[in-house]
Amino acid sequence: MAVREPLYVGTSSFDVEEMRVGAATAWTPATNAVKVLTGLKPGPGNPGNVTASGSPDGFTHVAAAALVIQSSRAANAGIYQLTWDATVDLNHLGGTYGTPANATNPRNDIVFAYVPDTFYGDANSTPVVRLLTGTPSGSPSDPSLAAFPDAVVLARVRVNANATTITTGNITDLRPAPTVALGGLLPTATATTRNALTGLYD
Prior knowledge:
- The protein is mainly beta.
- The protein is built from 2 helices and 10 strands, in the order αββββββββββα.
């Protein structure tokens, strides 16, 4: 619809998409006046940063963060606001999503945040911060996130052949830039990042 349901009016009832569209009005715009800039809420503690264990093992650790995700699952689907309020520990070499290193070739794992949504036919609406293992190869590529619409990538983790640990050197930071409430000062780390922004206003 062209004119969306306004929030908190009369006795109207709202579906979850309308609620997400309404919530989007409070955040920095992106490619148009309705869509917003996907990103991490800035704050102390290096939000969303992925690190290796102090004594290297098979785990990485995702720092607590609040994340705003512009949905692409409808023309104007609004935003998901996802928070994890404690460090998330991910086992790349075992556990639920990890797998032992290949004996011959390295692989790329991806650490990402994702919000499934039964409104769009998903099996559940339980958000996750997790890893996806890649395919071992002499020149490994990142695994596809096509099965996770609007997933936000936080890091790439190289799992070397025969690896028994993950170290800092194996981790590439791929977090999105910060996003802020409308009218807030948007931090940018470099002039390149600043110049790449879209939807700017005077």
